[in-house]
Amino acid sequence: MAQLKLELLERARCIYASDGPAALSMRRLAQDAGLSTMALYSYFPSKQALLEGLWLELFEALLADLLAASAGRRAPLKVMEAHLRGFLAFWEARPDQFRMIYMSTPKGIGDEAVPMQDQPVYHQLIQLERERVAACAGAAAEPGEAQLTLAAALALTKLVGYLLLVLGMPRYPLPELERLRERVVADALQGIEKSFA
Fold it and tell me: Which percentage of the chain shows pLDDT scores above 90?
């Protein structure tokens, strides 16, 4: 049963990648998998549950990559830099999945439809980023909640903004893309440092 669920998620990813978000429906997935729609509902009780399954897989993989990216680094700013670079590399290697999570809301799915904030992996990702940002405060007084939240949000905004431009508008001519990427990482790091100055 678990293997079939993984195969269904893979088929859903393929439908999304090849035909776009509007094509991903429970009926289409059931057809592609050779199941009845009712049988599919025993694995995913709703389209929201299907999307949540797709998102969970990605966030678990992202968490693993972010932990691996900083392995062996000790200095807080080096750990944070590896974290930022790992985040960009993860999504640059998965442009279709980035678009699925950050750039589309399939018809009939509202902003609250996929409640990732209730998922442990979502909390682990948030906690990891917050710990790494807080470690960059160094000898400064322990950052307050508002200061920490803002520093983490600003760094994420810079990274996602870069990815939205690069992955969301691939036809937009960006000269010196590698240099732009390096500048985004440097600016995000500098922003974190300045948050605690």
Answer: 51
The answer to whether 34 and 43 have CB atoms below 8 angstroms apart is no
The CA distance from 178 to 171, in Å, is 16
Domains of the chain: 1-45 (1.10.10.60), 55-195 (1.10.357.10)
Handedness of CA 143, 145, 150, 156 (dihedral sign): positive
* Rg for the chain, CA atoms, rounded: 19
For 36-73, what is each residue's pLDDT tens digit?
999 999 999 988 888 888 888 899 999 999 999 999 99
pLDDT of res. 111: 45
The torsion of the CA quartet 68, 71, 75, 80, rounded to 10 degrees, works out to: 0
Which of 130, 106, 107 shows the shortest CA–CA distance to 54? 106
Amino acid found at 92: E
Whole-angstrom Cα distance, residue 94 to residue 83? 17
Dihedral-angle region of residue 187 (phi above 0 means left; psi in -120 to 50 means alpha; beta otherwise):
alpha
